## 1
Amino acid sequence: MLLQVRELKVGYASGADVLRGVDLSVGASSVTGLIGANGAGKSTLLKTICGFLRRRGGAIAFDAADIGKLQPSQLAAHGIAYLMEGHSVFPGLTVEENLILGTWAFRKERARAKQAVERAFELSSVLRAKRKVKAGLLSGGQQRILEMERLTLNDPRLVILDEPSLGLSPKLVHEVFERIAQMKADGAGVLVVDQSARHVCAASDHLYVLRLGEICIEGPAASFSDRIDELVRNFI
Ligand code: ATP
């Protein structure tokens, strides 16, 4: 397994544990979906894996090495890419300039950086059409596509996505999940949290349901596909 989370306990300040012993794994070349009600602890789990919060207990391993004490920048250098909730484009720079900034890992290999940017334009017709447009003028959905492309420019091994389809039009939601499938085809492990349980289930190999800080259900996503409404009704 690429990522292994074991018995993870996390809380804020002096409050009670928000995550109360979470076990979760993500394999290479696969998509793992995580769904759950508002406040279940999904974002807390992703932030902890990505080094923005410290665990109170348990273990987080990437490639079998303990990463629980690393900083976000160190995790990025290890090949872990994280799309947070909200927007993080540079509004005054063009789409192309935003992508060029995203190739930091290849800063000493200009040809490779250029190739990565061109591939992003090949993969996304939305961005291709807006190449020279300032990112701040894109719609929220287009900005989200730009963020996702920028995230994958450095060939990450693990991609962690928090609500990538939030507030997007159906066409862009489709593009987001197509892009997730491409990340898997490129060999990355993907961990995705999204409000759309149906889309997450369809895109995932393995599905977890988080409830009140604990995994209450997990299994191959295909085993839930014909009862996803029931799952949402009972647990989300
Ligand atoms: P949502 O879908 O609404 O984003 P979530 O499943 O991602 O929900 P979290 O954002 O991880 O849930 O929140 C889990 C719990 O932790 C909630 O009870 C929330 O109020 C609490 N929490 C989140 N951030 C903080 C914080 N900075 N300080 C204190 N408590 C927090």
## 2
Amino acid sequence: GIHSYRAFSSKLTPSNYAFAFDIDGVLIKGKRTIPEARSAIRMLNGDNALGRKVPFVLLTNGGGVTEQAKAEQISNMLDVQISPEQVVLSHSPMQALVDQYKDKNVLVVGGKDRECFEVAKGYGFNNVIIPDDIHHWQSSVWPFRHPSRDSLSPDADSLDFSKIPIGAVMMFHDSRDWGRDIQIMLDVICSENGVVGTQKGDCTVQEIPIYFSNNDIIWSTEFPVPRLGQGSFKMALESVYKTLTGTNLQSTSYGKPYPTTYAFAEQVLGRINNGKKPSRIYAVGDNPAADIQGANNYGWSSILVRTGVFQEPGNSSHFPATSVCQHVEEAVKWVIQQEE
Ligand code: G3P
Ligand code: MG
């Protein structure tokens, strides 16, 4: 019948436009689902008068888990169907670093327990170190507490870091212990050849590359006021490094608003849109400095919603969006009205 044909044809006809949804502050706030998110995603999954789906990705500065796990989490919270290939996490584009570092010892910082260890291994980094392993090796690294056993990597008991030169530091998600992680990152950066416990002569010459997966100063959860994000942690690390060495920390950042992340998301959208990059991409976000700045700079349309970080009247003064909506459902309806 017509419905099965339409359903069939929707698989073949690439769409001229697509969406990129931020997660925190747009679809969810911590453990709370934003009610309008459910209907917004359902509309794009076919529950609309168009008789076809509209492609979309989730484009978040969040992470610390696999794309599969995030897809399941959001699908369950919104009671919709989102596939892992539609999910771009803060560290998803960092898979491009695997060739360069796959056989080096890489310190991966942040996230819950050893989840980022698993993510990095899953990407193809073969020798992944996490701060808890170093802390477990010598508890005096950070004498104020001991790491819990379930946060250690499988080989933790056999790792002697006096013999393990670390070749790079990558932050995959928010630190759960800023003090401990700033200490260990500085230990690596200021060491001889990345060997923790050594002190290089001239610490103003930085040899160990540092990568951050997001620069969010703040982000939106169920708490009524935004929380500090990875960007604030980075500022804290930079400040201590500057005080200790007199020079500025050099690092590379991924995530919104940086172009690398948008190029990666466009590739994903092309793949889920039957190989055709959509002519127009609408980014929906709650953080002007990340979601709106990044989309505007990359030539996408941007829609700022009021359910997260941004709570001022009117549009963002620093990073004005194409359009401002109350919430994500209003944003989807606005775009469909423009496009259809
Ligand atoms: O750690 C997550 C936070 O930085 C922001 O995530 O989804 O608002 O980009 P999101
Ligand atoms: Mg957000």
## 3
Amino acid sequence: STTPVNVTVTGAAGQIGYALLFRIASGAMLGPDTPVRLRLLEIPQAVKAAEGTAMELDDCAFPLLDGVDIFDDATAAFDGVNVALLVGARPRGPGMERGDLLAANGGIFGPQGAAINAGAADDVRVLVVGNPANTNALIAASSAPDVPTERFTAMMRLDHNRALAQLAQKTGTGVADVTNVTIWGNHSAKQYPDVAHATIGGRPAPEVIGDDAWVTDTFIPTVAKRGAAIIDARGASSAASAANAAIDHVRDWVLGTPAGEWTSVGMVSDGSYGVPEGLISGFPAVSTGGAWEIVQGLSVSETAQAGIDVSVGELTEERDAVKELGLI
Ligand code: NAI
């Protein structure tokens, strides 16, 4: 039998955690042949709730689940970790300024990055889900100088999947017919969802959609503001869809993206597409099972570049703010 993969999930007692852990344990993330050991990290007040979730994980009798350990200490939780899902974050409270939010999250993601640096396995891969995801990933990466920055990623996959669903519905196709959408920039309302290189049923998406105004006036804002629409309808933020996107992101990273298809990944910029080097931004990316690679050489229209630049401008501001706070 194979050695279990150590998967650490932070914020394990939260709503995304509850939607995520059972799917990891069932094999949806790493495949049907890979046993997993779950390591749950929570704050002390939520450890009891995490223990309840662990009881339910036992009660599922998942054949691939090697065991569940619960921690309230980051150093212990990340010891030997192969896949780290950083979900727990500090939400924006009433009257909280952006600087306060960034500082509060720096107090979480800085120490977690240091704990990953200290104890993670050599092949560690990190996905940051907790918002502001891109900048939290940057903070964690800069607190882990011995781990290649490429191993720290931020989740753009939920935005990507939202885009696939909108395009399939608009064109009366299935989501599996839609490929090569890109979500550029920040996981925020200023993201730039891009269909220029997408295909639907093998044909250029703009041609199949046949309605450029819909793309600009409906598609882009619907995808970018979907998180708020979910909160409005559900009275709580996206959880099962966020967990599903995290599963998709790690699965494609570890097992590879389908031939000829890319997905959207928040990853460190090498300077491509005018994104300043070192920022963690949404890019089109592929994996063959090792590292994420940015898809190079795509033509970008002036309009698209302007959309990318706006979103990247926001990332630059966030980076400047955390630099000023001494968090990176
Ligand atoms: P939640 O509030 O239900 O759960 C968060 C959990 O994190 C809580 O159980 C809390 O105790 C825990 N936590 C807080 N600080 C922690 C720390 N230092 N170490 C370990 N655990 C800690 O929140 P939910 O709905 O599960 O969302 C989690 C995060 O994911 C939020 O920041 C949310 O904004 C973000 N999110 C990101 C998305 C994306 O596409 N990137 C999509 C949806 C949500």
